[in-house]
């Protein structure tokens, strides 16, 4: 069924190619400029977006074996994800029950036990407290009540989503809206992480707007890669998540082939965004690959941090890895020097107060949808959050 969706999207793309048209909304959208820097709104975003919604924090291929773990700080929350001996992935606040110290340093690895570096309290792969240093001298502690604090988690399509609050009310199925079934076509569970970089940037929404925007490619990126791409975009949505592609004439030869022979590489091209903070862009340097950008808010409204993960379908040989690293070097440069540097200047200009609003044109449906979803979920309290996720495409009501 999910391949059928890919075929349908390819045929829609071909329709735009042959007609020489693109996807347009009925009107433009006006977004208050203060949404990008107002501290009160930013605090609400931290609470109701990054605090409640599942965030894509790990790849299944980073947790291939029992005992494999990933420690990551997301929106200032330390998270520990562990593959248990039963094969299940579990997530916890990375905080010891003794004094709250971070149990595992950031990064990936493998361990039978997880030992706090402060006083050596020890936890197993289910987060249970299994060891207390000098327990007979410490005092009476009920180990069953002092394990690591579990976080809601789901693993689908080779990706791992975690909610940062133990009591989060979100329904994973309502949030994903079937998007995970389409992402399964990549087969990420068998891919390989070959490179990771970190890039600092502007307000997280200024940064994220760019991942949904093909309009700027031949302008801002004219000296790097943008001249090879059109500035027209086609958006397909699953709940708040979107696939972005441009009218692609390279799909035209597929019309003469049986749909069963249409190659997966052609069907999954483009940019796949996961609300509210991930972009998956397809590439082929050194072999089939993707750049997965995990965007997190920084310490204040004016900052963000993006982790650039480059994954490849096949583990590359030395030549393939070198070619992939060249691709990653270029992508890091493009994001740091072109996208985010422009975003920081944009942010400075907006804070100066000369503009009361920013515009998203009829040809920028991805940005329109993102900001309307953002407003909808900010307005929803915990009791209405899942209803808001199931409410349908806000652009369909425009």
List the helices and strands and how they pair.
Layout: H1 2-19, E1 29-32, H2 39-48, E2 55-59, E3 68-74, E4 77-83, E5 89-93, E6 107-110, E7 114-115, E8 122-123, E9 129-131, H3 135-138, E10 150-151, E11 153-156, E12 159-162, H4 172-176, H5 179-183, E13 192-201, H6 204-211, H7 217-220, E14 234-238, E15 241-245, H8 264-267, E16 271-274, E17 278-283, E18 289-297, E19 304-312, H9 318-351, E20 357-360, H10 365-379, H11 385-389
Antiparallel strand pairs: 1-20, 2-12, 3-4, 3-6, 4-5, 5-10, 7-8, 8-9, 11-12, 13-19, 14-15, 15-16, 16-17, 17-18, 18-19
CATH third-tier fold name of the largest domain = Naphthalene 1,2-dioxygenase Alpha Subunit, Chain A, domain 1
How much of the sequence lies in strands comes to 25-35%
Counting DSSP H or I runs of 4 or more residues, the number of helices is: 11
CATH C-level label of the largest domain: Alpha Beta
CATH second-level architecture of the largest domain:
Alpha-Beta Complex
Helix content: 25-40%
Averaging pLDDT over every residue, what do you get?
A: 96
Explain this structure:
The protein is α+β, with helices and mostly antiparallel strands and 398 residues long. The chain folds into 2 domains: 2-53 and 173-397, Naphthalene 1,2-dioxygenase Alpha Subunit, Chain A, domain 1 (Alpha-Beta Complex); 55-162, Rieske [2Fe-2S] iron-sulphur domain (Rieske Iron-sulfur Protein), CATH 2.102.10. It has a 7-stranded antiparallel β-sheet. Strands 6-3-4-5-10 form a 5-stranded antiparallel β-sheet, with no helix packed on it. The mean pLDDT is 96. The protein has helices at 2-19, 39-48, 135-138, 172-176, 179-183, 204-211, 217-220, 264-267, 318-351, 365-379, 385-389; strands spanning 29-32, 55-59, 68-74, 77-83, 89-93, 107-110, 114-115, 122-123, 129-131, 150-151, 153-156, 159-162, 192-201, 234-238, 241-245, 271-274, 278-283, 289-297, 304-312, 357-360.
């Amino acid at each position: 069924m999910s391949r059928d969706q890919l075929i349908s999207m390819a045929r829609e793309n071909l329709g735009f190619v042959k007609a020489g048209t693109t996807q347009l909304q009925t009107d433009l959208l006006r977004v208050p400029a203060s949404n990008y820097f107002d501290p009160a709104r930013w605090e609400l975003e931290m609470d109701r977006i990054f605090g409640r919604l599942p965030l894509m924090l790990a790849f299944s291929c980073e947790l291939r074996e029992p005992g494999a773990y990933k420690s990551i700080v997301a929106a200032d929350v330390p998270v520990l994800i562990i593959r248990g001996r039963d094969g299940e992935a579990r997530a916890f606040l990375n905080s010891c029950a003794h004094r709250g110290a971070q149990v595992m340093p950031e990064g990936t690895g493998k361990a039978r036990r997880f030992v706090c570096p402060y006083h050596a309290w020890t936890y197993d792969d289910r987060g249970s407290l299994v060891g207390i240093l000098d327990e007979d001298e410490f005092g009476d502690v009920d180990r069953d009540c002092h394990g690591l604090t579990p976080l809601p988690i789901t693993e689908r399509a080779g990706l791992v989503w975690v909610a940062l609050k133990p009591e989060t009310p979100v329904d994973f199925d309502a949030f994903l809206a079937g998007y995970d079934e389409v992402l399964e076509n990549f087969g990420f569970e068998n891919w390989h992480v070959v490179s990771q970089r970190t890039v600092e940037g502007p307000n997280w929404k200024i940064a994220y707007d760019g991942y949904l925007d093909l309009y700027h490619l031949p302008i801002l990126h004219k000296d790097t890669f943008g001249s090879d791409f059109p500035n027209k975009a086609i958006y397909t949505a699953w709940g708040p998540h979107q696939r972005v592609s441009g009218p692609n004439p390279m799909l035209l030869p597929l019309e003469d082939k049986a749909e069963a022979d249409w190659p997966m590489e052609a069907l999954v091209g483009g940019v796949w965004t996961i609300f509210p903070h991930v972009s998956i862009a397809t590439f082929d340097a050194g072999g089939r690959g993707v750049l997965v950008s995990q965007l997190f808010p920084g310490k204040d409204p004016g900052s963000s941090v993006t982790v650039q993960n480059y994954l490849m379908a096949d583990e590359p040989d030395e030549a393939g890895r070198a070619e992939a690293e060249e691709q990653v070097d270029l992508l890091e440069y493009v994001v740091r020097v072109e996208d985010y540097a422009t975003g920081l200047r944009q942010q400075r200009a907006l804070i100066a107060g000369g503009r009361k609003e920013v515009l998203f044109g009829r040809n920028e449906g991805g940005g329109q949808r993102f900001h309307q979803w953002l407003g909808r979920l900010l307005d929803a309290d915990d009791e209405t959050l899942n209803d808001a996720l199931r409410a349908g495409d806000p652009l369909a009501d425009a």
